[in-house]
């Protein structure tokens, strides 16, 4: 399998696992869009979406430099600009899944646990100035913003209170 | 298999007002006061649609897609079908159905289809002209308002059920409060006047035709002109009905746009039986001969000039011209200098040309409001 596709699939599983554990449904966007990978939502009785909702763009990387406790991630300008927009009804965040360089280290399973390595982080770029770069814009993803069950639930609660992630 | 609509441009083309009208018409309730950006609609306890109110929103297509996904579940049908209905909710839909053995399998000889579509155009144009000002006959020059309207009338997909041509006449959405209750006080927008005119004309046509068939008298049609019946409308319907020299039944139905409800019930249906088609043809012929023709140019030799009394400055001139391809004597009242020119033309056997409103009066034609009178130079003789 192509290494990029492999990372994409692994990071999808990562997000699904966190959302499921937090009690939210994940859905693919209904529009062809390379900037939104998943929509996370609380669901109504028949699987219809109910507020609050969150949309995310997912990246999976191995080695990235860390400066001031932030992981430096280069993004395509188009992706970056789609994430900084503040005229959206459903808030958008960026989720970065970091994986070990060796694929065999990504997943460990025994009778007691399933371990997915290494970690996922999130950042909201909403309201930042549009990038005027030609190719990429590098963003800093704070290492303290782990994308885990507690963080996702807190984010969804803030959105439910008409706040931002 | 269900087909999802994923195309960003198609989704972006949906109008919030149209979708809101659709939701209301399907029993959805606005459950909170709308914010600046969105309105929340619910259906029962289980379903919610957050409708984006501004097409400027960057995730507008995404949110419309969410709405379609929810509607797909609620209505248990294809997103494409729902999308078509959403788009049509902003239009009055006129359906022309041919009750035709020829069309039983949903197809039609291409030539006949072309004729039906052309007649459908003529029918809408006739209704649009009558909505501006009802007349017996709309000759070549049509009112500008009607011509502008016709540019916005669209043809939808044809539908099964013998053979159905669908015509979409987009209508300005009514804002709450102005639609049903205030309908009598505030005039309807022109595009709605056209479809109302069509509906009124078809109803009048049906009634008048029944009387005409029973009594052999076409005078009931005279009164129906005020309701929008014209020679053009009669011709259009007769044309739809005729295939290979045989008349078939035609059914025209009208469904009002959801975005602007009408008092006249959601769906009207008129069936024009093949038996009355010859009546329509005759009415068209009579109406055409009776209708004044504006900007009509008479060209031909002068064969009589009369002044009564002889000392008067104005006089009657008779020109041998053509009306609808047939030679006719046309009377025209000319003032002083033009009268003298006409008299000269008679003496010198020259052709003249004059423009005005041509009316048939009894057995003869008269040109009113003559202008641009001229004696034509000899080389045109």
Task: Present the secondary structure layout.
The complex is a heterodimer of chains A (165) and B (381).
Chain A: H1 3-22, E1 25-27, E2 38-43, E3 49-61, E4 66-67, E5 70-76, H2 77-84, E6 92-98, E7 107-109, E8 114-116, E9 119-123, E10 136-142, H3 149-160
Parallel strand pairs in A: 3-6
Antiparallel strand pairs in A: 1-2, 2-3, 4-5, 5-10, 6-9, 7-8
Chain B: H1 8-12, H2 16-25, E1 29-30, E2 38-43, E3 47-52, H3 60-75, H4 79-88, E4 91-99, H5 110-132, H6 144-151, E5 153-155, E6 159-160, E7 163-170, H7 190-215, H8 219-224, H9 231-241, E8 242-243, E9 246-247, E10 249-255, E11 267-272, H10 277-290, E12 293-306, E13 315-323, E14 326-334, H11 336-348, E15 351-361, E16 364-375
Strand order of the largest sheet of chain A: 1-2-3-6-9
Mean pLDDT of chain A: 91
| SS content category of chain A | alpha+beta
Q: Unreliable runs of chain A, pLDDT <50, ≥5 residues?
A: none
- Span from first to last CA of chain B? 74 Å
Number of helices of chain B: 11
Radius of gyration of chain A: 16 Å
| Structural class determined from secondary elements of chain B | alpha+beta
Task: Tell me which oligomeric state these chains represent.
Answer: heterodimer
Number of strands of chain B: 16
For the largest interface, the chains and their residue counts are:
A-B, 22 and 30 residues
Helix content of chain B: 25-40%
Helix content of chain A: 10-25%
**Biggest sheet overview of chain A:** 5 strands, mixed
Distance between the termini of chain A: 35 Å
> How many E-type strands of chain A?
10
The ordered H/E elements of chain B are: HHEEEHHEHHEEEHHHEEEEHEEEHEE
Shape call of chain A: globular
Outline the biggest β-sheet of chain B: 6 strands, antiparallel
């Amino acid at each position: 399998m192509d290494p990029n596709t492999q990372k994409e699939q692994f990071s999808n599983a990562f997000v699904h696992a966190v959302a499921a554990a937090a009690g939210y449904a994940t859905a693919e966007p209904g529009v062809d869009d390379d900037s939104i990978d998943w929509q996370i939502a609380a669901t109504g009785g028949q699987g219809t979406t109910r507020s609050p909702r969150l949309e995310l763009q997912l990246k999976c990387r191995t080695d990235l430099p860390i400066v001031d406790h932030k992981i430096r991630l280069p993004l395509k300008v188009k992706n970056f600009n789609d994430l900084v927009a503040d005229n959206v009804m459903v808030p958008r965040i960026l989720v970065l899944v970091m994986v070990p360089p060796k694929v065999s280290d990504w997943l460990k399973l025994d009778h007691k646990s399933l371990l997915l390595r290494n970690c996922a982080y999130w950042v909201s770029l909403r309201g930042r100035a549009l990038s005027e770069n030609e190719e990429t814009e590098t963003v800093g993803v704070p290492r303290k913003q782990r994308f885990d069950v507690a963080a996702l639930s807190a984010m969804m609660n803030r959105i439910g209170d008409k706040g931002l992630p | 298999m269900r087909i999802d609509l994923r195309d960003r441009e198609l989704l972006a083309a949906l109008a919030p007002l149209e979708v809101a009208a659709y939701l209301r018409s399907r029993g959805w309730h606005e459950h909170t006061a709308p914010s600046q950006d969105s309105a929340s609609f619910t259906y029962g306890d289980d379903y919610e649609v957050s409708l984006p109110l501004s097409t400027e929103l960057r995730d507008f297509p995404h949110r419309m897609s969410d709405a379609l996904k929810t509607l797909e579940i609620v209505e248990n049908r294809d997103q494409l079908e729902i999308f078509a209905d959403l788009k049509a909710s902003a239009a009055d839909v006129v359906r022309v159905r041919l009750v035709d053995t020829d069309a039983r399998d949903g197809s039609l000889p291409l030539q006949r289809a072309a004729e039906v579509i052309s007649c459908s155009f003529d029918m809408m144009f006739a209704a649009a002209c009558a909505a501006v000002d009802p007349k017996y006959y709309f000759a070549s020059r049509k009112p500008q308002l009607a011509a502008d309207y016709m540019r916005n009338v669209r043809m939808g997909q044809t539908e099964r059920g013998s053979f159905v041509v669908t015509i979409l006449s987009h209508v300005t959405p009514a804002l709450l409060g102005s639609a049903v209750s205030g309908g009598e006080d505030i005039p309807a927008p022109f595009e709605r006047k056209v479809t109302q005119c069509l509906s009124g004309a078809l109803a009048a046509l049906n009634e008048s035709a029944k009387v005409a068939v029973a009594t052999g008298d076409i005078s009931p049609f005279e009164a129906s002109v005020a309701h929008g019946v014209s020679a053009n409308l009669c011709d259009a319907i007769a044309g739809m009905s005729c295939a290979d020299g045989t008349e078939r039944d035609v059914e025209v139905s009208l469904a009002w746009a959801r975005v602007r409800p009408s008092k006249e019930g959601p769906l009207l249906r008129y069936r024009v039986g093949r038996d009355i088609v010859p009546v329509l043809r005759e009415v068209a012929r009579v109406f055409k001969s009776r209708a004044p023709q504006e900007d009509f140019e008479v060209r031909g030799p002068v064969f009589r000039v009369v002044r009564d009394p002889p000392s008067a400055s104005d006089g009657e001139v008779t020109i041998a011209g053509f009306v609808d391809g047939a030679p006719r004597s046309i009377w025209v009242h000319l003032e002083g200098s033009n009268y003298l020119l006409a008299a000269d033309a008679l003496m010198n056997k020259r052709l003249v040309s004059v423009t005005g409103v041509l009316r048939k009066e009894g057995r003869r034609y008269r040109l009113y409001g003559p202008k641009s009178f001229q004696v034509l130079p000899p080389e045109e003789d």
